[in-house]
Structure formats: C-alpha cells, structure tokens
Design brief:
This protein has a single domain, classed as Ubiquitin-like (UB roll). Helices cover 40% and strands 25% of the residues. The protein contains three helices and five strands, in the order ββααβββα.
Length: 91
C-alpha cells in the first residue's frame, strides 16, 4: 500500500504528495502567495474544504476569489457564520 498519491492539476501536470495532504498543502508547494488566496478546492469535480485530507489520486483545482466557485464558497460560508452569530444573540 502506497503512502503517496498523485494529484493532477488543471494544466495537466502531475505531482506526488503524501496521502492525507490537503489542497492547501498542494497550494503551498506551488506558491505561498497562492496558498494565502485559496478559499476552497475542487477535487474530482466536487467543491470541498481546502483543509480536507486527500486520500487518493485526484484531479485538483484550487479555488480563489478569481473563480466563481471560490466566491460562492466564501459567500456560503460567510452566511453560515452570520446565521450562527444571529442565533447566539437572539433571545
């Protein structure tokens, strides 16, 4: 059983990482600036948290504010945080 997974990036390049690495780890290995801008990740076509461990070979797209899905994720997460705060202060 291999402890390595292969991540395919949108440009078709492939990189090997340790199983359990996150999309944020991948971003950091590319550029610290990119890692600071990642809002979410698209893994095999599914948008998910950039902190979720990658357990198998996958196609990965790092989502930032420049991507519609990145913006949507940020707005969705912000709405949940606002809802939690409102629930906490409501009688």
């Amino acid at each position: 059983m291999s402890d390595q997974i292969t991540i395919t990036l949108p440009d078709g390049s492939k990189r090997d990482y340790e199983k359990g690495s996150t999309a944020l780890d991948v971003a950091l290995s590319i550029s610290e600036g990119l890692a600071r801008n990642v809002l979410a990740a698209k893994v095999d076509g599914e948008v998910q948290d950039a902190f979720r461990p990658l357990e198998a070979d996958a196609e990965l797209q790092l989502l930032t504010w420049n991507d519609d899905e990145g913006k949507s994720t940020m707005w969705h997460s912000s709405a949940h945080l606002l809802e939690e705060e409102l629930d906490a202060i409501s009688p």
